[in-house]
């Protein structure tokens, strides 16, 4: 790559990062502002990913699917987009994730030429539906999850479409926050447009497009060179989701053939009447994440990388369902299991490169109700766990692993903005799997409601455990306990409760799997397992 082309390519990556900063800093919801549950990218005129910011893995891989689907839909059915206009949609069968992820797409035009596209995706805390947070644990169809926005012109002739805003005000539980987040996405898209126009001023349209083509070709060459250094081999693996009526197997056969990485999910369970279905964009994203973990950091994650990756799942399966099957949990839970099963297959091909299973759940917590003023509120967060132990070291405790890359919601922020009082936020000691190297520990997060609140849990790894490798033990499974007055009860992995003020919820996330057989003799104790007096004094006893 020539120096000029490389400079333009790196500058485009910076534009995508700037978009992410603009979105985070101008969003209203803590989910975006604090947890950074959003992603941004720059596309070329045909929709190929040129550069994307390092945000949420499940978003990033789906951009390729979303861009192709949306541009194809626009070409066949409209609405066409003129300079300065923007398109919005959250239809997961087009945008590649789930209803809560709202995608905004904007053309980048210079003069009479279309130079590229600016695209953003952000998780809205609530998009309507029967339960606050819109991740309905018992949904069977999209309509039971929330409001579906088909590809719609959001900005026309420089003005936001009032009809779209009316939909938000009418259907979303917190319309003020939702509109603020939508304005933040539009600002981020405008930042992308301005950034690319600045590059056109500096390099010229033709040179910029040439540099984009070169960086994609360079990414493909680096990807294929990296894959060629791995063993040419195939391996199969199976893991399971926790279905209401029994296990739901996910099966994959991974093949590395020198210049291509392929994952075939034939044999996985058929689509189900629950939110655990994952649209193809999610399946592709999780496969891309696992494949990307094998490659050096110098490989750019653009169309060059994605063009070397193939993921196939039969239509009508849990990993490629037919509309209108519910898919909210597929994005947040099934995505984790897809990453798990692909990594497990890779452990047979490159055993010295693959860790044991991480916690395997995003532990989705959705809440909502009314404030003393009568205004409605909604709250969403995912809670981290332990990562799997590695061939040369322990797992990491209290982190978001695999398909989520978000931060936490600080307790101070949550208590200031919502009717909640937090009682515990600490590591779940000794929850990581045993072994020569121990899995990372999960998290304990407990809170008390201060007003009547609807609480929903959508999670996994309650009955199955994060697996160990090379003789390492599994991590401890998840557990959620509710206490109302003097009575306590365990919660299943997917449920909704209407809790009175004063109820408590204690969430314990899984630890990661261990790696290698433990040496004989007393169990090795990690320094972080020694609790300080302050930690012992602030723990909230389990109600179980």
Radius of gyration: 23 Å
Low-confidence stretches: 528-544
Q: How many individual helices?
A: 12
Strand % is 15-25%
Number of domains: 2
Report strand order across the widest sheet.
Answer: 2-1-5-4-3-6-7
As an assembly, this protein is single chain
Q: Write down how many β-strands occur, each being a DSSP E stretch of 2 or more residues.
A: 20
Largest sheet entry: 7 strands, antiparallel
- Which structural class do you get from the secondary structure elements? alpha+beta
How far apart the termini lie comes to: 61 Å
Overall average residue pLDDT: 93
Query: What is the share of helical residues?
Result: 25-40%
**Outline:** globular
Describe the structure.
- By secondary structure, the protein is an alpha+beta fold.
- It has two domains: 3-219, no CATH class; 355-544, no CATH class.
- It is 31% helix and 24% strand.
- It contains twelve helices and 20 strands.
- The protein has helices at 3-26, 30-33, 57-77, 92-95, 162-171, 175-203, 205-228, 280-292, 303-306, 328-349, 411-417, 533-538, and strands at 38-43, 49-52, 86-89, 101-110, 113-123, 152-156, 159-160, 233-243, 246-256, 261-264, 309-312, 364-370, 376-382, 420-428, 442-449, 453-458, 479-484, 487-490, 494-499, 504-508.
- The strands form four sheets. It has a seven-stranded antiparallel beta sheet. The chain has a five-stranded antiparallel beta sheet with strand order 14-15-20-17-18, with helices on one face.
- β9 (246-256) and β10 (261-264) form a beta hairpin.
- α3 (57-77) crosses α8.
- The longest helix has 29 residues, at 175-203.
- The N and C termini lie far apart (61 Å).
- Residues 528-544 have low confidence and may be disordered.
């Amino acid at each position: 790559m020539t120096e000029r082309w490389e400079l333009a390519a790196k500058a485009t990556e910076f534009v995508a990062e700037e978009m992410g900063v603009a979105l985070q800093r101008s969003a209203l919801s803590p989910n975006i502002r604090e947890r950074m549950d959003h992603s941004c990218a720059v596309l070329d005129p045909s929709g190929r990913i040129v550069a994307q910011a390092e945000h949420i893995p499940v978003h990033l891989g789906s951009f390729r699917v979303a861009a192709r689907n949306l541009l194809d839909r626009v070409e066949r059915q409209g609405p066409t987009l003129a300079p300065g206009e923007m398109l919005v949609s959250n239809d997961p069968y087009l945008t590649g994730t789930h209803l809560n992820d709202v995608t905004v797409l904007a053309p980048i035009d210079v003069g009479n030429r279309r130079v590229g596209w600016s695209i953003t995706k952000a998780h809205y805390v609530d998009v309507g539906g029967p339960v606050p947070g819109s991740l309905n644990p018992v949904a069977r169809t999209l309509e039971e999850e929330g409001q579906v926005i088909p590809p719609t012109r959001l900005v026309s002739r420089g003005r936001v479409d009032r009809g779209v805003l009316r939909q938000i005000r009418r259907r979303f539980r917190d319309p003020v926050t939702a509109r603020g987040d939508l304005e933040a996405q539009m600002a981020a898209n405008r930042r992308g447009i301005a950034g690319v126009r600045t590059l056109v001023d500096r390099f010229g349209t033709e040179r910029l497009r040439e540099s984009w083509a070169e960086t994609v070709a360079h990414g493909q060459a680096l990807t294929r060179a990296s894959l060629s250094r791995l063993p040419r081999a195939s391996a199969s693996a199976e893991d399971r989701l926790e279905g209401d009526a029994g296990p739901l197997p996910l099966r994959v056969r991974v093949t590395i053939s020198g210049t291509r990485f392929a994952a075939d999910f034939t044999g996985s369970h058929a689509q189900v009447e629950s939110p655990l279905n994952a649209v193809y964009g999610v399946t592709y994203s999780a496969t891309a994440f696992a494949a990307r973990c094998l490659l050096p950091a110098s490989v750019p994650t653009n169309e060059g990388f994605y063009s070397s990756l193939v993921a196939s799942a039969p239509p009508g399966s849990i990993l490629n369902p037919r509309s209108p099957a519910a898919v909210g949990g597929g994005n947040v839970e099934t995505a984790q299991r897809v990453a798990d099963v692909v990594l497990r297959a890779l452990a047979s091909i490159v055993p010295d490169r693959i860790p044991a299973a991480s916690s395997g759940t995003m532990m989705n917590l959705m809440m909502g109700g009314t404030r003393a003023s009568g205004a409605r509120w909604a709250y969403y967060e995912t809670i981290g766990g332990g990562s799997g132990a590695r061939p040369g070291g322990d797992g990491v405790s209290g982190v978001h692993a695999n398909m989520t890359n978000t931060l936490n919601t600080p307790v101070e922020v949550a208590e200031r903005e919502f009717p909640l009082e937090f009682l515990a936020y600490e590591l779940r000691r000794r929850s990581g799997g045993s072994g020569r190297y121990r899995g990372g520990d999960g998290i304990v997060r407990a809170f008390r409601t201060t007003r009547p609140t609807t609480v929903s849990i959508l999670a996994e790894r309650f009955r199955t455990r994060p697996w160990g490798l090379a003789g390492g033990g599994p991590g401890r499974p998840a557990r959620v306990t509710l206490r109302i007055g003097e009575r306590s009860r365990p919660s299943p992995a997917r449920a909704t409760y209407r809790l009175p003020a004063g109820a408590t919820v204690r969430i314990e996330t899984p630890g990661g799997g261990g790696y290698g057989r433990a040496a004989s003799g007393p169990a090795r104790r990690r320094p972080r397992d020694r609790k300080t007096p302050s930690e012992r004094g602030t723990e909230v006893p389990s109600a179980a």
